[in-house]
Amino acid sequence: MPELTNVRMNSAASTQSTKRRRLPLPAINWPFLLVVVLLVGYGLIVVYSAVNANEDYSFSRQVAGVAVGAIAMALIWAFDYRRLSEYTTLFVILNVLLILSPHVPGIGVNTMGATSWIKLGPLPQIQPGEFAKITVILLDASIMARYQGRLDDLREYCKAVGLMLIPFVCIMTQPDLGTGLVYLFIAAVALVVGGARLKYLLVTLAICVALVALVFVLDEVIKGSTGEYKLLKQYQRDRLLVFMNQDTADLTDEGYNLQQAKVAIGSGGLFGQGYMQGSQHSLGILPEAPTDFIFCVLAEELGFFGVMVLLGLYVALFVIGFRIASVSGDMFGLLIVMCVIGMWLFQILENIGMTCGLMPITGIPLPFMSYGSSFMVVNFALLGFMGSVWSRGKESANRVEYAAAN
Predict the structure, then answer these.
(1) Under 8 Å between Cβ of 35 and 320
(2) How many domains are contained in the chain?
(3) Is 1 a domain residue?
(4) 51-88, pLDDT tens digit by residue?
(5) Which domain holds residue 138?
(6) Does the reported pTM lie above 0.85?
(7) CB 349 within 8 A of CB 191
(8) Which backbone phi and psi does 116 adopt, to 5 degrees?
(9) Residue partners of 113: CB distance under 8 A and separation at least 6
């Protein structure tokens, strides 16, 4: 009997020792997943109404984008993002190949004056510049991560900015100014979070403003000698003029979109006209309703209440995103999460702002709401990277706790 008791005691001690040695697995981030499900579901509800009376769009394709995106999110979440931190050169090459691929003869597709899409056989058209948002974020994060939160050397700063400008230069060959602005904002977030000196940032901002002014001046000079603008597309100039002179905008041209967007938003009132009862998009009055002006569809049908629900979901996503950034175990993960949050914030402010006349009209879509399977897959992939950062951060924290306890 004493021998049996000793065996039991040794077995119990061995089991307890095994439990101490085993590190707990990171728990599922349920609040994160819940907000994602609610936001995506809300987007599908609004998109279904927006495309219901429009044969140019397919709701099943949007659902397929969500399905593919969910798979991509799961795979990326399971992948250790830290293995990508040293591949800066590879990201530069991938960005160039992706963004310039629409210029390849035979596969590039010109739509509305921009060569931004490719068509590969029977497959649906895809927008490589959209997928490049992922590699742009990884590129900028990998560049700034090497400085570990402090970039004081002017030469290194210029080198970092030069590398970050490569995707922007490539996208402007299409040209796609909206996506180019997204790339620039991602770079700005990476520089700020990555610890670039404030005076370098201010000088860079001043140079950018001066260059924009110079482009307009040179374009006027060119028109004076050739009779037409060369540096900016006519529709780009028209959009800016409409933004600056909304009350006198020509309703037959670019001003029409803005005026109809305002009508749709204003007619929604407090609780909207009712789901699938919006007249602006169902009658074809509001252009590009499922994509650029999806916010107007939401505001018209579900009103101020529906808009506040959407903004509440966005706020919840950002709060959780900041929490993920706070537990990231390294600078690379922190930069990835902050660049993703910054990109979404810029897109939200620009998209909603342009429908209200507070920002110039661009082709920047609304995250998780606008129609587009490529856009949806990219957003899900970025969610996967956020999940990967969270899991590895929790894993590192668990290891520290385990080491302290033993």
Answers:
(1) yes
(2) 1
(3) no
(4) 887 777 889 999 999 999 999 999 999 999 999 999 99
(5) 70-196+233-396
(6) yes
(7) no
(8) -115, -5
(9) 233, 235
